[in-house]
Amino acid sequence: MPIQHIAEAADWERALDTGLYDRSTRGASIAKVGFLHASAGPRQVALVLDAVYADVTEPLVLLTMHEETLHGAGLRVVLEPGVPADPRGEWFPHVYGGPIPVGAVAGVEQIDRPQPRVEQNRVVTGSTTGVPTNVSASVPAGEESAENAAASSLIEAHLSRAIDLAASNAATNGGPFGALVVSADGQVFQGTNRVTATHDPTAHAEVEAIRSAGLGLGTFDLSGAVLYASCEPCPMCLGAALWSRITRVVFAADRHDAAAAGFDDAAFYEYFEAPGRRDAMPVVHHPTDRAAAPFEAWRGNESRTAY
Ligand SMILES: [Zn+2]
Hints:
Helices cover 35% and strands 21% of the residues. It is of the alpha+beta class. A hairpin with a 5-residue loop joins strand 11 and strand 12.
């Protein structure tokens, strides 16, 4: 899918000399920001022009890149919230891995703006290195679907990989489930169902991917990460995602597809949703005098690591 980036023409001219484009947004470098800010489709380009470049009078160009080419150059494309603190806001493609080789840019076009714009009722909540989401942008009508299609193509790429993992696992020695955890900085950790192979009923693909991410990143806190699963996570995996502070969960097949294939996901959901189903596995509260002792030991341990 095409990924677009607004560049100052002078910065692009300099990139042509050096062979590398190293700007992220308005003078901030990729090295400083950590990634290249980009847009998926004309609607997001319009949003960024309005929110970040409205007062820029220097000539601008629009760089068009293709995700496959960027991957070929060793770069990663991750869809992330424009404002990290607001995962419900607008999501943009971010390119990680360093400066962009000019050869990875497929197209360059001038951005024609009618006239330099003055500040007009602009609401800017982010810095120049973040893209505000609550701006009143002039969005061309009918182009929202193009942007949505571009954004969903990134999600589909991750889901497609999870599905490939699930299918190959099912064809060998495991259940038909695969999952990815994509960290906030774009690192990808994968998991497949290993229940029968390891005699571990908790070795679901999502749990395996979460364990892999925790080990690989050296932290139990996966805030900002997204869990992509080939099938709707069961209650256990949703619980694991909550405990790991995963920011968002995206799945392909649903619990009914899993039930149709003979898995208990739908029944377990009913266990939590309908109190009357608890007789499938009674859970008994039996208070004792010593029940609070572990919490007292926890509170008394000055060197504890809170989580
Ligand atoms: Zn599960």
